[in-house]
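TA notes, week 10

Several of you asked for a full example with nothing omitted. So below is the full record: structure tokens for the whole chain, then the designed sequence directly under it. When grading your own attempts, check the secondary structure regions first.
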């Protein structure tokens, strides 16, 4: 890869370590092989990564969840990426575009990107600027089920200058765009010629430029990727990468303990196994910060949840601390917001949650939700009854559901548990808002930028014809306006009050009930190098090009 001297640091808004997670390492040794190129070596060995959820979406621009990105980072490349310290560095681009190097105009509207000339797709076709143009246009194609139009929809003109240079003009300056580009994987134009991109063969047999090539998939079991011998950068060092699907978290830990998996990914090692895991010989176990938060999320299309009093009462009825202490061994810390406390934009002045069955009942009484003969409240013919879903086999969430079911019953709310296999749970059931309520972990950010338009903007709900991750179907005009304003500003001091105000509104509206910010227990075998935590990315394989056995 090109030398990391081309990387530039954004105004750092995060520390690496989760502040409340036992004070573990804030510096990750060995990071950096994604930059200056070293001598290429023949790939050797394999790594088996255990995921608790099954990757099922292989076109990175169709609606997907975090676990699918475990495949994307291995198979594809973005133009630029971001490291654990919040520094952008180039991948398919020769350098990170900035105003200083002329890559971004003074008004922030015109971007010019110089591309590498030594990149080929896995099928041998040369990578060119036409592929970048195609990708940016695909994301805003109204006939394509795009997972993200935010930012890309501001592009008014794209100009392919040459095979190795492209420029585009935007309606306005958009501060989050560098972070969005860092999670925009470039796809090959030629793979979509003459076919519907929603159903192209590519979507089941992806072709990328990344360090690993698609080999095969055994649905419900694993995905096998093999080294790309023509990769343009340093690496890959591994001959094979296997992403193994293990939905039961206890079984996932057992296979890590026995050595059947070399590293644990999504959902990681559950805190109830942390004490034992940290003593296992030949294993390296640590706690890393995460921008993900756990919440009970509402589908605001459901009539019972359109009354804010119901959402507020149910929040009072959640015994957060008991859930954290009893199930998570006190590892994560309770939160009132989607914003990680490591970010400078974190609002420390939000009202603090209180567990109070008495107050919850008072709120529902005052709002006119009356108990029936069966003890379940109702108002205007709508019963306070709903299902709650999460990933089947996630035993901690399943136990948390028992806590919630019990305390909700005490306030006259009937919660029925209806859990589903991950592939079903996080498919249309989640993306198209077919649920009533869900227990889910969410990271609302694209890299280190505080913009959350994909999640909170009213036009970002797939269930209402939008593109994004607003699966709770949240609609607040003030939030819409603030998101536009915040993204138009560059200076942190100007953006700070906007994003703190958004947190105040979310805490008031409660489209979701925040429970805790993640502190994830990561585990790998000794000798596996390059496996680095990154709070700015959503998946552990973000740096898989650097993984190797020592």
């Amino acid at each position: 890869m090109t030398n990391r001297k081309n990387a530039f640091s954004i105004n750092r808004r995060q520390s690496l370590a989760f502040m409340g997670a036992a004070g573990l390492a804030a510096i990750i040794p060995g990071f950096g092989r994604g930059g200056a190129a070293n001598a290429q070596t023949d790939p050797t060995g394999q790594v088996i990564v255990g995921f608790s959820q099954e990757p099922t979406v292989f076109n990175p621009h169709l609606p997907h969840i975090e676990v699918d990105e475990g495949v994307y980072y291995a198979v594809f490349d973005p133009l630029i990426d971001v490291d654990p310290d919040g520094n952008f560095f180039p991948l398919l681009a020769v350098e990170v575009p900035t105003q200083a190097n002329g890559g971004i105009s003074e008004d922030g509207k015109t971007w010019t990107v110089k591309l590498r000339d030594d990149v080929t797709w896995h099928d041998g076709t040369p990578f060119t600027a036409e592929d970048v143009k195609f990708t940016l246009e695909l994301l805003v194609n109204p006939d394509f089920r795009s997972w993200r139009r935010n930012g890309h929809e501001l592009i008014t003109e794209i100009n392919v200058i040459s095979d190795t240079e492209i420029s585009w003009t935007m309606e306005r300056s958009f501060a989050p765009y560098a972070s969005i580009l860092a999670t925009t994987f470039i796809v090959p134009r030629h793979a979509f010629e003459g076919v519907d991109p929603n159903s192209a063969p590519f979507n089941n047999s992806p072709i990328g430029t990344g360090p690993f090539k698609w080999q095969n998939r055994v649905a419900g079991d694993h995905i096998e990727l093999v080294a790309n011998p023509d990769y343009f950068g340093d690496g890959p060092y591994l001959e094979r990468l296997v992403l193994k699907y293990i939905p039961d978290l206890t079984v996932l830990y057992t296979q890590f303990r026995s050595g059947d998996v070399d590293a644990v990914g999504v959902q990681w090692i559950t805190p109830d196994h942390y004490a034992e895991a940290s003593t296992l010989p030949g294993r390296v176990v640590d706690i890393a910060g995460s921008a993900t938060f756990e919440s009970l999320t509402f589908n605001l299309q459901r009539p019972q949840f359109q009354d804010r009093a119901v959402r507020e009462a149910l929040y009072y009825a959640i015994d957060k601390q008991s859930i954290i202490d009893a199930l998570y061994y006190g590892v994560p810390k309770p939160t009132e917001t989607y914003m990680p406390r490591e970010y400078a934009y974190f609002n420390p002045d939000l009202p603090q949650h209180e567990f109070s069955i008495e107050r919850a009942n008072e709120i529902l009484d005052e709002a006119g939700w009356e108990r029936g003969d069966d003890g379940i409240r109702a108002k205007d013919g709508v019963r306070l009854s709903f299902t709650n879903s999460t990933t089947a086999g996630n035993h901690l969430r399943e136990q948390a559901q028992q806590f919630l079911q019990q305390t909700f019953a005490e306030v006259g709310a009937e919660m029925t548990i209806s859990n589903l296999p991950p592939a079903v749970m996080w498919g249309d059931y989640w993306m198209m808002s077919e649920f009533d309520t869900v227990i889910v972990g969410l990271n609302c950010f694209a890299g280190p930028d505080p913009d959350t338009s994909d999640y909170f903007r009213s036009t970002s709900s797939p269930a209402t014809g939008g593109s994004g991750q607003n699966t709770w179907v949240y609609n607040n005009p003030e939030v819409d306006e603030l998101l536009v304003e915040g993204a138009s500003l560059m200076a942190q001091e100007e953006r700070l009050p906007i994003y703190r105000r958004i947190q105040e509104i979310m805490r008031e509206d409660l489209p979701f009930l925040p429970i805790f910010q993640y502190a994830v227990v990561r585990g790998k075998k000794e000798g596996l190098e390059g496996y680095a935590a990154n709070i700015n990315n959503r998946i552990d394989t973000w740096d898989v090009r650097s993984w190797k056995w020592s």
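Residues 292-519 form a domain with the Dipeptide-binding Protein; domain 3 fold (CATH 3.10.105.10). Use that as a sanity check on your answer.
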